[in-house]
Design a protein that fits this description.
Layout: H1 8-11, E1 14-15, E2 32-34, E3 38-41, E4 46-53, E5 58-62, E6 67-74, E7 81-88, E8 96-104, E9 110-116, E10 130-134, E11 137-144, E12 152-155, E13 162-163, E14 169-172, E15 177-181, E16 194-200, E17 203-206, E18 238-240, E19 551-554, E20 577-580, E21 599-602
Parallel strand pairs: 3-9, 17-18, 19-20, 20-21
Antiparallel strand pairs: 1-3, 2-4, 4-7, 5-8, 6-7, 8-9, 10-15, 10-17, 11-14, 11-16, 12-13, 12-15
């Protein structure tokens, strides 16, 4: 019979002797299994064939979940004998036994018993290990990327330990799983890493996380860079995390460690006093059930140390204290981004800033009604950029006393927030895009701050109040020396704006007033435009869509610069008065010149 107990010798299968002898084409009077009704196997995975003989059609009505049956077909030269393929999974636990039940209409059921030995143990005797318990039945496996294959051992009794092949291990309410490892050079790396995967019921993990690095507690064992990177990445069944004992952190050591663990309710304590670059980056990101953050007492921060640490933690209502007074690059960047239930922020006593230190820190915190004080007087690039963007319940802004600004320092700071009154902005010397879109889409803003600055910078007010639909009065703009795009789009979409600010500059800059009043549908008169020589794109779409503007005074006598008046009056009132420089005769009629059907007169007393 072909393939009978295929690869028998390789699999070390021992067969209980059988007295059954098959006779070709003899009609059997019962079920017969050749070679035996009992088969004993080693712990290793195995595949082999058996032969089943029966005088009528039959079926298999029971198979253990660790045995697969396939390839049921008649053997050659017989009408009653079938060849059946069996595949048995590796046994990672105790000795186990299972029954395959054969049934037919005529004959009594017969049973094939498969006994499988337990895995061979390792002589390791760990002094520490992780304990995993389940609310029901959980199957735990390890996913390895780019050749990362840590050395791990498991046990169900803390006495017999086995080398893990990363395939599914069962955890039940009555049988916890114990794990430890020997990975003194680090468990994970930045490009090659491993993370746990689970199926079934919620489970908890307790014990010292260093058990995965060194189960013997060797003195002076330290973390390496990216050590626990993504360890429980998107493990949606983890509800309790292990203890994190290390006090000396390394680059990205806990980065993304619990990202996407949506069942995690409580975060582990973080005892480290001195942080490292990206050490907690995205550590609890998208832990949507996390209701309490751990204490973060460290005052010694590092680059991007808390970046996106609690992003998308929608159940978090209170932030931990953040006592540091000297910040690092991106240290709090997006730390609480889109924590939609966050109502209480920590105090932020820092006075020494760093680039992007608060970048979008509370962006999307829609329940936040009060902002922390911001005492710093000297700012850094993008330090407050987007800090309270999309905080739709935030009606009052903190004081902003800084006199020394930096590139993008306030950019998008309150975009889409609920502010009604803007904070004072006392700085007199501005920086590149420092107020860019600062109050953009603040639909409830009714009071704009004074803008005393006389020294402007490129893009400094770019789109600053765009789509502030409730703003009726614009602040004074006293500067007479302009910069490229300095006022570009500043009041775009301010449909309640009634009176435009005076524009006193006589020397223009590229795109300085570009799109400045687009869509200001309540504006009736344009500010007097004193400059005689225009700059490239300086009035580009300046009054586009201002349907009620019916009076423009323009001193220009040189409009040769590229696109300087491109569609600047498109969509204004169908009739009105245009006062021009008497020395200017090159205006064209239409949306890029003097509006059609308007009355044109010369400016008197030029």
């Amino acid at each position: 019979m072909k393939h009978l107990l295929h690869i028998l010798s390789v699999l070390a299968i021992s067969i209980v002797p059988s007295c059954t002898n098959f006779v070709a084409d003899e009609i059997p009077d019962a079920f017969y299994i050749n070679p035996s009704n009992t088969i004993s196997l080693s712990s290793q995975a195995s595949e082999f064939f058996i032969n089943v003989r029966c005088g009528e059609k039959w079926d298999i009505v029971n198979t253990p979940d660790w045995i697969s049956v396939s390839n049921v077909e008649l053997t050659s030269g017989s009408h009653y004998e079938w060849e059946v393929s069996l595949s048995v999974k590796e046994n990672l636990g105790y000795v186990r036994s299972g029954e395959i039940v054969f049934s037919s209409t005529k004959y009594e059921k017969t049973i094939l018993t498969i006994n499988q030995d337990k895995a061979r143990g390792e002589d390791i005797n760990p002094t520490r290990y992780l304990t995993l318990t389940s609310d029901g039945l959980t199957i735990l496996s390890l996913n390895n990327l780019n050749g990362n294959n840590p050395i791990l051992y498991y046990s169900f009794d803390k006495e017999n330990w086995y080398r893990w092949n990363y395939q599914g291990l069962p955890i039940t309410t009555d049988m916890p799983l114990f794990l430890c490892g020997d990975n003194k050079n680090g468990f994970n790396k930045s490009q090659s890493y491993s993370h746990f995967c689970s199926e079934g019921s919620l489970y908890s993990c307790s014990g010292d996380i260093m058990s995965l690095i060194d189960y013997k507690e060797t003195p002076d064992i330290k973390l390496v860079d990216y050590c626990y990177y993504r360890l429980f990445y998107k493990d949606v069944l983890l509800k309790k995390a292990p203890t994190l004992t290390p006090t000396l952190l390394t680059e990205a050591c806990y980065s993304n460690m619990f990202l996407g663990c949506i069942s995690l309710v409580t975060a582990p304590k973080l005892p480290a006093a001195s942080l490292a670059k990206r050490c907690y980056e995205s550590m609890f990101e998208d832990c949507s059930s996390l209701i309490e953050a751990p204490d973060l007492p460290s005052t010694n921060l590092a680059e991007h140390c808390y970046r996106a640490m609690f992003r998308w933690c929608g159940a978090l209502t209170k932030a931990p204290e953040l006592p540091a007074t000297t910040l690092s690059v991106g240290c709090y960047e997006r730390m609480f981004y889109d924590c939609s239930s966050l109502k209480v922020t920590p105090e932020l006593p820092a006075t020494t800033m760093a680039a992007s230190c608060y970048f979008e820190m509370f962006g999307g915190c829609r329940a936040l009604t009060k902002a922390p004080e911001l005492p710093a007087t000297t700012l850094s690039a993008s330090c407050y950029e987007g800090m309270f963007c999309n905080c739709s319940s935030l009606e009052t802004a903190p004081s902003l006393p800084a006199m020394s600004l930096a590139d993008h320092c306030y950019a998008n700071m309150f975009e889409y927030s609920g502010l009604r009154i803007a904070p004072e902005l006392p700085a007199t010397t501005l920086a590149y895009c420092c107020y860019r879109e600062m109050f953009s889409y603040c639909y409830s803003l009714i009071v704009a701050p004074k803008l005393p600055a006389l020294s402007l910078s490129e893009g400094c007010y770019y789109w600053m109040f765009s789509n502030c639909w409730s703003l009726r009065t614009a602040p004074e703009l006293s500067a007479t020396t302009l910069s490229n795009s300095c006022y570009a789009g500043m009041f775009w979409g301010c449909k309640s704006l009634i009176v435009a600010p005076d524009l006193n500059a006589t020397i223009l800059a590229e795109s300085c007033y570009s799109s400045m009043f687009i869509g200001c549908t309540s504006l009736q008169s344009a500010p007097i435009l004193l400059a005689t020589t225009l700059a490239q794109r300086c009035y580009y779409k300046m009054f586009n869509g201002c349907v009620n503007i019916h009076h423009i005074v323009c001193y220009a006598n040189d409009i040769m610069a590229e696109a300087c008046t491109y569609k600047w009056t498109e969509g204004v009132s169908s009739s009105g008065i245009f006062e021009k420089n008497p020395n200017m005769n090159n205006w064209v009629a239409g949306e890029s010149g003097i509006p059609t059907n308007w009355t044109v007169i010369d400016i008197i007393n030029l």
